[in-house]
């Protein structure tokens, strides 16, 4: 795979798994995340030459930093073929009338505005070259709202609408757009949602077999490697133990 892949949120979870899959295919990787130390640890696990990876310490919520990072890429890294908009998070599981304002800011700024900032700075080059692929990581939460999900679900519904809008805006070009929307995936997601409460986070996945980051990366890689005339618009995937955003099997059917 003689392509340059930019992955946001690449320091752990789905982003790190994507780095592994694309590295194994011989792609050149631009890995972006807030935690540079974690990024370097990811690179150490990859069988990849130093010349085939470029690291960026980046908070996608910072529009000026995003613009600077993309515009100052070395020339040999500037022609991005695939953008995986993976950076995202959930904060809290409170009723809207009881929620923390900062949790809302974190989710909206990262999941919606951050995705837009990165896409807006990468996409013009793809359009100019008339090739490229935007892959947005959505969620089942963008299709089904659940109790306490209010703002998080709204941000993922926004990702769904942005992906659909991109496909419309890019008609007439060869730039592809895909939204990969998972259900329950065991990553740092729940730990972040519950502000580091490991015990509460662990309970989310107890008694069932969730998806893994590799499961999602495998689907993303599949979407990215279809023939150029094929665009997979949207993929919804969940573990067998999950039937909807809230209905799961933990050795018996119950609401989680």
Q: Number of DSSP helices? A: 8
Which CATH-level-2 architecture? 3-Layer(aba) Sandwich
CATH topology, anyone?
Rossmann fold
CATH secondary-structure class: Alpha Beta
- Average pLDDT score: 93
Unreliable stretches: none
Helix content: 40-55%
CA gyration radius, whole angstroms: 18 Å
Which term fits the overall shape?
A: globular
Total tally of structural domains: 1
**What proportion strand?**
15-25%
**Measured distance between first and last alpha carbons:** 41 Å
Would you mind describing this structure in some detail?
With 256 residues, the chain is an alpha/beta fold. The chain has one domain (4-255): Rossmann fold (3-Layer(aba) Sandwich), CATH 3.40.50.720. The chain is built from 8 helices and 9 strands. It has helices spanning 13-24, 36-45, 63-71, 101-129, 150-169, 189-193, 198-204, 213-224, and strands spanning 4-8, 28-33, 53-57, 82-85, 132-137, 175-182, 234-237, 247-249, 253-255. It has a 7-stranded parallel β-sheet, with helices on both faces. It has a two-stranded antiparallel ribbon with strand order 8-9. The longest helix is centred in the middle third of the chain and has 29 residues, at 101-129. The model has no long low-confidence stretch (mean pLDDT 93).
């Amino acid at each position: 795979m003689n392509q340059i892949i930019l992955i946001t949120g690449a320091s752990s979870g789905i982003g790190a798994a994507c780095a592994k899959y694309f590295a194994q295919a011989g792609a050149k990787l631009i890995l972006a995340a807030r935690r540079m130390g974690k990024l370097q640890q990811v690179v150490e696990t990859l069988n990849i030459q130093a010349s085939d990876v470029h690291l960026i310490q980046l908070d996608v919520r910072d529009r000026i930093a995003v613009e600077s990072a993309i515009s100052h890429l070395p020339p040999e890294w500037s022609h991005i073929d695939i953008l995986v908009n993976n950076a995202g998070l959930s904060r809290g599981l409170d009723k809207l009338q009881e929620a923390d304002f900062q949790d809302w800011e974190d989710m909206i700024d990262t999941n919606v505005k951050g995705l837009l900032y990165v896409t807006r700075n990468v996409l013009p080059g793809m359009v100019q070259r008339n090739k490229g692929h935007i892959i947005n990581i959505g969620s089942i939460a963008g299709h089904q709202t659940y109790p306490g999900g209010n703002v998080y679900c709204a941000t993922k519904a926004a990702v769904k609408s942005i992906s659909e809008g991109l496909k419309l805006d890019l008609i007439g070009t060869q730039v592809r757009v895909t939204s990969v929307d998972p259900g329950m995936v065991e990553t740092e997601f729940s730990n972040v949602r519950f502000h580091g409460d490991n015990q509460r986070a662990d309970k989310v996945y107890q008694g069932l077999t969730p998806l893994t980051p590799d499961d999602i990366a495998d689907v993303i890689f599949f979407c990215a490697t279809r023939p150029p005339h094929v665009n997979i618009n949207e993929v919804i995937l969940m573990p067998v133990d999950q039937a909807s955003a809230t209905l799961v099997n933990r050795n018996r059917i119950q609401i989680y």
